[in-house]
Task: structure prediction
Amino acid sequence: MRNFPILRLRVTTPRLELRLPSLDDLDALADLAADGVHDPQDMPFTFPWTDAEPAERARSTVRFHFRQWSAWTPEKWSCLFVTVFEGQVAGTQEISGTDFAITREAGTGSWLGRRFHGRGIGTEMRAAVLHLAFDGLGARTATSAAFTDNHASLAVSRKLGYRDDGIDVHSRRGERAETRRLRLSREDWSTPPGFGIHDLEPCLPLFGLAGTEKA
Result:
């Protein structure tokens, strides 16, 4: 689409392709959400959307992507990729920014369908959007956060070089719970081999960057 070129943007790794979802991709992602994202006794999200019934989880997944597309501005954007592994949609990986041209800071968030857990996909898809942030968009820092009992997410952050950045407190299912903030600087980032960014240049204005501006 000429007027919304972000739909052509892709990030590739040795095993994965991250892309903005087609309608068929959204159907597959919604099916994954309906099948389950995590153990029901756990809650890794500050907004407990996965507590809904399977059909509502599926619908809310589609609605969320549509809302993020319609709300996109150069000043505040959320780029929601689907992660494709061996030809199958495995989950979603977000990278977001507010006043990115000034702050040069991006945030990330993600989930994987349960049948894709335990294969290192979460680490690889986070590394993919960090490659986009640092090497494609010229970010200076990237942030993440996870509940202190979300050991898998925290392990991904540690593996990729994030450092502690404080604690936030939330109400989770009616109980007090802490999230650990994490921050990664450009100086601590090194792109793994075999990573690529495709069709980024036409998208730069949508990220708040003029022409090929990076810093």
